[in-house]
Amino acid sequence: MHKIEILGFVAATLTTMAFVPQVFKAWKERSTTDISLVMYLVMLFGVILWMIYGIYHGSLPITIANAFTAILVFIMVVLKLKYK
User: Fold this and answer.
1) pLDDT band at 1 (very low <50, low <70, confident <90, very high)
2) What span is annotated as the signal peptide, if there is one (predicted)?
3) What is the domain extent for residue 64?
4) 43-55 pLDDT tens trace
5) d(Cα 44, Cα 5) in Å, to the nearest integer?
6) How many structural domains comprise the chain?
7) What is the CATH number of the domain that holds 26?
């Protein structure tokens, strides 16, 4: 594996994991009042497009990171709708 691929995986891990505390907090507190549904819907659409881009270019870091991010963002959308 090339060093640039390792860099891609590290970057992907950090940016994806940035969503974990928000998801955990919303789930734990059962509150999403300060969360923008529109922002998360736009983000979800964007990461799905990035995932497709990663698949097209055969980039594992881009594909995996955006797949996991899409799951986390989707969970936030569900929590937002559930705790509305």
Assistant:
1) confident
2) none
3) 3-82
4) 999 999 999 999 9
5) 24
6) 1
7) 1.20.1280.290
